[in-house]
Amino acid sequence: MRRRRNGTMEKAKKFIVKNFVPITFLVxxxxxxxxxxVSVNFLGxxxxxxxMRNTIMMLAxxxxxMAGMGINFSIVIGALCSQFATVIIIDRKIEGITGFxxxxxxxLIMAYICGNIIGYILNRSKGREMITSLVIGLLGTSIYxxxxxxxYGTIITPNNDKIMLSSGIGVQSMIDxxxxxxxxxxxPLIPIVFIILVTxxxxxxxxxxxxxxxxxxxxxxxxxxxxxxxVDKSRKQAIIISTMIASVGHLMFIFDIGSLNVYTGHLNxxxxxxxALLAGGATLNKANLKNVFVGVVLFHTLFIVSPLAGxxxxxxxxxxxxxxxxIAYSTIVFSLMINIHNEKKEKIYTQQVxxx
Length: 356
Prior knowledge:
Its main location: membrane. By secondary structure, the protein is an all-alpha fold. The chain is globular, with a radius of gyration of 22 Å. 77% of the residues lie in helices and 2% in strands. It has a single domain, classed as ABC transporter involved in vitamin B12 uptake, BtuC (Orthogonal Bundle). It contains 15 helices and 2 strands. Strands 1-2 form a two-stranded antiparallel sheet.
């Protein structure tokens, strides 16, 4: 009886240690809900919208982690590809289901091309993929802004004057996406279908030969080389898949909102996706579908209630809104600290087992 109790306690302890980050966020969510006094209907409706808008972008992070490349912050480029394609379709005045399909195809083609370039760069910076991908995202943003601030109306001839600034050079900061929003309203299951489709694609990839290669590369790159695996090709494929998924994910986001903020609509998509994934219990080396779906619910529940909870605590709406940015960045720092601590403990335990 005593052994059974000790065994149960040991299992419970291991479960808490392994899932410390999501358990912490669950507790914070419950506290936030209590403090904000938010209704179940409001929370459910808001959470549903956020799950539909953000899940695919989180799914885009899984394949590079599987390949041992850490968090792919260059998913921002996928978001930029979708925004670029959207502006082109709106400029060409292609509406309805034709415009909807066309913008998806163009964004996927652009994301494939950009994914190849990013993959090549990251293969040249092995071991420093995360910081390199972050810089790539910033560089991509600068080039994108230059095209739409100065290129449109000078080098690129616009067809739709309504999206242009009064000077005739540069695209307006906000573009109405009512034709695309109408498609989502008419077929509200589209975001769910895309989430299921992308989930099944990732699950399929994990079970294929490519998935086995990516796991081998992520586990030990030197062993992968010795097994005859084309490491660079596998890593590049992981980034291409990630960038293409990110482009679709961002399209679902902006179509659901119904408007495109041309110059800032893509900002922080990488940070929020990363924070939500880590909140779900993922690490820089391991992440799965469970982490995505647990993370998107926990992180965005806290994201919804935190401003209201902050306002209730400090009686200041501005401070309440600040809580959102604080949560996003503190989630990443907190999760990384816990993950590094757990990895160190695991290494020490493994070394002790080998010595015995």
